[in-house]
């Protein structure tokens, strides 16, 4: 009968919508970090390949920032298990506020985040890095009924014509290591960024 056909068609349509929704959710989970909701490392690598190719083709600049959120293990041991997770979620919110709407923020490691900066020269990248560092550490984060002071370090690299994703990230990581091993270099970088 016509009624049975309509009911069956409606049922199949609803089932199709549920399947599409489930597929979309699986795809979303595949490319995002479950804790922070930002792009995960695997998706970052895919996006970087595409963006680097596009920027080379259009002869545009591109930069990368790598942030290391400091002392997360000590925060967990001092304030209790799970406190670092609360801190990471808040840090991501702060980082998102300090980036441009077309920048790509990704979780790169346990305590590391990468920000892909399309059409950003090294100078622009330094200004954005300074703004992000300030935004991250400007106010303590309330977690476990305590105020937790957050600090971070940053490594910066601007894309060169012969760079691969790995080389660009390696240069940013090397810059981060310089910042990690030299408080005075980080202070000098901050001073340079303030007056740049």
Give a structural overview.
This protein has 196 residues and is α+β, with helices and mostly antiparallel strands. It has helices spanning 2-31, 41-58, 72-79, 83-98, 122-137, 165-181, 183-195; strands spanning 62-69, 104-107, 112-118, 141-143, 146-148, 152-158. β4 (141-143) and β5 (146-148) form a beta hairpin.
Kindly, what is the distance between the CA atoms of the first and last residues, rounded to a whole number of angstroms? Answer: 76 Å
Helical amount: 55-70%
Helix run count: 7
From the alpha carbons, calculate the radius of gyration and give it in angstroms: 21 Å
The structure class reads alpha+beta
State the total count of DSSP E strands: 6
Q: In percent, how much strand structure appears in the residues?
A: 15-25%
Q: Mean of the pLDDT scores?
A: 87
Please outline the major beta sheet: 4 strands, antiparallel
Principal-axes geometry comes out as flat
List the quaternary state of the chains.
single chain
| Largest beta sheet: strand ordering | 2-3-1-6
Low-confidence stretches: 184-196
Q: What order do the SSEs take from the amino end to the carboxyl end, as H and E?
A: HHEHHEEHEEEHH
């Amino acid at each position: 009968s016509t009624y049975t056909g309509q009911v069956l068609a409606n049922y199949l349509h609803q089932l199709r919508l549920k399947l599409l929704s489930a597929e979309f959710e699986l795809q979303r989970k595949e490319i995002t970090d479950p804790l922070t909701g930002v792009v995960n490392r695997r998706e970052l690598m895919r996006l970087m390949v595409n963006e680097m190719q596009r920027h080379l083709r259009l002869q545009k600049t591109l930069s990368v920032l790598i942030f290391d959120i400091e002392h997360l293990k000590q925060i967990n041991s001092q304030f209790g298990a799970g406190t670092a997770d609360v801190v990471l979620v808040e840090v991501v919110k702060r980082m998102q506020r300090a980036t441009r709407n077309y920048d790509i923020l990704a979780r790169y490691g346990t305590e590391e985040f990468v920000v892909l900066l399309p059409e950003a020269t090294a100078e622009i990248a330094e200004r954005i890095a300074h703004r992000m560092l300030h935004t991250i550490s400007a106010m303590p984060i309330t977690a476990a009924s305590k105020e937790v002071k957050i600090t971070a370090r940053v490594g910066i690299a601007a894309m060169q014509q012969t760079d691969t994703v790995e080389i660009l990230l390696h240069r940013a990581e090397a810059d981060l290591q310089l910042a990690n091993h030299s408080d005075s270099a980080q202070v000098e970088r901050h001073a340079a960024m303030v007056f740049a």
